[in-house]
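Z., the sequence and structure:
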Amino acid sequence: MLTTAQLQALMADTESDRVERTISTKNTDKFAEAICAFANDFPNHRQPGYLLVGVNDEGRAGGLTVTDALLRDLANLRSNVNLEPIPALTVQKKQLPDGEVAVVEVIPSNLPPVRYKGRVWIRVGPSRRAANQQEERILTEKRTAFQKTFDGRPCEGCALDDLVLDLFLVTYLPAAVAREVIEENKRDIRQQMASLRFFDLGADCPTHAGALLFAKEPLRWVPGAYIQFVRWGGTTMADNPLNTKQFSGDLLTVLREMQAFLSLPAAAAPVAESALRERTETDYPTVAIRELLWNAVMHRSYESNAPVRFYWYDDRIEIQNPGGLYGMASPENFPKQTDYRNPVVSEAMATLGFVNMFGRGVIRAQDALRRNGNPPAEFTFETSHVLATIRRKP
């Protein structure tokens, strides 16, 4: 909150796009419109705005006595049902020689445009007015810029000590940044990780992507971040499981272990091409399984506690990831249209060489299935998940 000296400086200055003065104590609409305008921060100062109640046009305290009832009324504006989304504000009483002043400090919203009774209010210089269509569009674009995907948000409770820093310094950083840049870089590890979106400097903690890639215990921070493999002894989940395995740990370990697991021979058989030559055929091409698994790991919702399911039946393989299609992707344009629910994780997987960023994974899988003689993979899209089914080669 403001110090007394800062308050007096604001009072003495003319009204600006960060300050509104009023002597009224009853005009709720005026107060709410001012709060709405400050929360929208149309000039993009990214600094608080102030409603000063009890200050006259000359910039002096008007002899107001700030009662508890007035402070409650001002504080209750943050829960006013007509203000959406609810702005963040604090209320304070200041004692000055000429009287008392109620100070309402309004924090710029990360979810603009904020509306009061359905209208968007902004400040342009010292005046407050309703936003026009173009100004609303600008505020909407600010909202999009402010919003972070889950993998880029701070992982609250996780600290630098919870990470295996060598994974970042020795394994990831050399793959992501040119060696000469690393040698010239004098920033500390927090700043280096932040530049790659693995650390949030404002919250002073790793992001969820940082926890996924480098945490000692990723499941502590992202409980669903693992792959559940089951080999069923039949064609339904009613049959007995023959083998189960959980692939968990930091994301690099999960991907490497899964890659090694998929390299093991799976239902392979020699087929004669001639009297002196034979080739090996498999029920499923490894590249197709791998591409669809990587696709699931990359595009899944990490806000869900459910794992990626990798279920192998006698007649098919099912790969299911939590979270439906994201963004611009739809059942009609899949897989030609790509959008990224987890852009930081996707970039990391591409940096480590597991995927590309061209949306070709599903297309490559379908091509591998065709060349191996399998039917095309089938996809089921639900709001809660995406299910990929690979049928066994006839």
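The chain has three domains: 4-146, 152-219, 227-391. The two ends are 72 Å apart (CA to CA).

Let me know what you think.
H.
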